[in-house]
Amino acid sequence: MKNYNNVHILDHPLIRHKLAIIRDKNTNTKQFREIISELATLMAYESFKDVPTQTITVETPLETTTQTVVKENSIAIVPILRAGLGMVDGILSLFPAAKVGHIGLYRDEETFEPKEYYCKLPVNIEEKVVMVVDPMLATGGSACDAITMLKKRGCKKIKLMSIIGAPEGVTKVAEAHPDVEIYVSTLDRCLNERCYILPGLGDAGDRIFGTK
Predict the structure, then answer these.
(1) Residue from 140, 34, 175 nearest 93 by CA
(2) What is the pLDDT along the chain (212 residues), one digit of tens a residue?
(3) CA-based diameter of the chain, in Å?
(4) Residues known to be catalytic
(5) pTM recorded for the entire structure
(6) In whole angstroms, how far apart are CA 166 and each of 46, 54, 154, 163, 196?
């Protein structure tokens, strides 16, 4: 895969450690769900390094000083249903005031193309930094469609965070939306004939919610 300026691989020993656990087919639902959330927190720390800020005045016990804080009402998290829900709490642990929207897309099992079935977004989302989250960036179809939906609603600052990416999906999003910063913790080998990532971790939604 060629290098893209808008693609960021968040490689870190702690992230690699947690990835090894969720890849394991024997990891139970509770532990899988917890680690997906923990990975989202770790990745959010880096992917929000350019978060909008403002300066405020603070009274310490000794004197008055100025400090930098995250700008109020500046962030929105938009999970792609349903697996993206597993990443929301991890980001909210860092940004508890962030607004949360939802985009529902499912994959047609014959064409592997995404189909929209739900969209509910925060008021004034076009004024916020929007983080689209989905644990697996496989074909890139759902991510591209979700980003396009947000752009049609006026969003100008959009990021995408996925825990595992396939070269096919990362390439598709990077080329379709060069203005969107893409963050993945690792880039896996390829997709199989059913468009699952290899080596991957299986179906993230089923493993988060214990439905399979």
Answers:
(1) 34
(2) 788 999 999 999 999 999 999 999 999 999 999 999 999 999 999 999 999 999 999 999 999 999 999 999 999 999 999 999 999 999 999 999 999 999 998 767 777 677 788 999 999 999 999 999 999 999 999 999 999 999 999 999 999 999 999 999 999 999 999 999 999 999 999 999 999 999 999 999 999 999 97
(3) 67
(4) 107, 111, 203, 206
(5) 0.92
(6) 20, 37, 28, 10, 9
